[in-house]
Amino acid sequence: MPRFTDNWVLDKSMFDYVQGGSCACCGFPHIFNIGGLEGLIQSMSDLETDAANQEIDAAKMSPWPEDMRDGIWTDRLLLRYRMKKEMRGYRHFLEEVVRNHHHDGDDATTPIDIKKAIPILHNFCTKHLTPFQLRQIFQLPRSELPEILKTKYKIHASAYAIVFCTVVEQVANFHVTKYPVDGRRFGSSGGGCDLDDAEVEFEVDLRYDKFGPGFYIGIIDKNDDGDGATSTSGDDNNNSEECCWRVNETVLLRFLQRMVSLGGPTLLARAAKTSHDNQDDSDDDDEEENNSSTTTTPPAVGSNVPSFRSDRRVIRLLIARYWADGIMEKYRESQQMKEKKKEGGTE
User: For 208-261, what is each residue's pLDDT tens digit?
Assistant: First the structure.
């Protein structure tokens, strides 16, 4: 059996579950489980109708015990619910960035185009942060993701935590599977990346180094021209190395577009509805991911094997949020320094 495929995830999760064990109460298998297994899966707004039906059939054929299976779907739903509640915070930050730099007299009720934050944050990253600082931000050890699931989202000691750890390993070795990209691409133009393509471009840029930083993107390049880095910040102790590196502004721009997409309106992008999906239009959240068997990711072994594409997309989303949080922290620190300087100048 090829390693890191969906079938490998299925078997490894089962093995780890049996070996390590997890009691049914830790997985909360019956919370929100009003309609049984079908109710849990249909509650996943990032699954289209065909995808949900396939997952129901695959789950029934799965070798996982019933308590393990239901616990996994319960925690999947719980994780998405908690992540959706956080989207507002990213949007508020982006609106804050735009307000700080566009003093045009608009009142607080005026809608703000958060896309305007992209050039502002691009300027901040290239002018106020050094390449070394950016490189430090855009790193994430693999072990940090299960810790985020445990501490931030309060999901631990459960069957889904085992699946989550296994899928993190799959994401780290995704190139081995030979699967196409998991994200949805909507842009029709060839040059550059727009917000609709931001998830796909981030997935393509995402790399993993087992013996290095873990997950990372190529945010800096070797400076072969001798022009120095684009940063003007001089408060770093690695100035002797700064002249050898420069910011890859294309990769930075693509990440900032992904960062803006974190503000919603949906958690995960979803393909346009087909005519047979129209009966679901009344669902408020039914606007997101297509995880069906008709998408580009093939099932691992036959149609009765669950797809872990949705979990991979969520994990990459968590990585993007982790790095966005780093940019947000640096930006707010910079704004606080500006405020302190203003207060000092008025005394």
Answer: 999 999 999 999 988 766 444 454 444 444 455 556 889 999 999 999 999 999
Tokens standing for residue 152 = 């931030």
Residue 15 exposure: Cα atoms within 13 Å on the Cβ side: 8
d(CA 186, CA 203): 14
CB 26 within 8 A of CB 157: yes
The b-or-e profile of 13-51 (16+ CB within 10 A means b, else e) is: bbebbeeeebebebbbbeeebeeebeebbbbbbbbbbbb
Task: Measure the N-to-C terminal CA separation of the chain; round to a whole number of Å.
Answer: 71
Q: Quickly count: other Cβ atoms within 10 Å of residue 341's Cβ.
A: 10
Partners of 139 in the beta sheet? 216
- pLDDT value for 31: 44
State the Rg of the chain over Cα: 22
CB 312, CB 170: distance < 8 Å: yes
Number of other CB atoms surrounding residue 92 within 10 Å: 12
Which of 316, 319, 333, 318 has the alpha carbon at shortest distance from 133?
Answer: 333
Please say whether the beta carbons of 144 and 172 come within 8 A: no
pLDDT reading at 95 higher than 60? yes
- 8 A C-beta contact, residue 255 and residue 205: yes
Residue 229 amino acid letter: A
Token pair of 205, please? Answer: 């840029």
Instruction: Work out whether the CA dihedral 339, 329, 236, 220 comes out positive or negative.
Output: negative
Identify which of 136, 203, 218 has the alpha carbon closest to the alpha carbon of residue 172: 203
Q: In what order do the strands lie in the sheet with 139-140?
A: 139-140, 214-216, 207-209
In angstroms, the CA 257 to CA 63 distance is 40
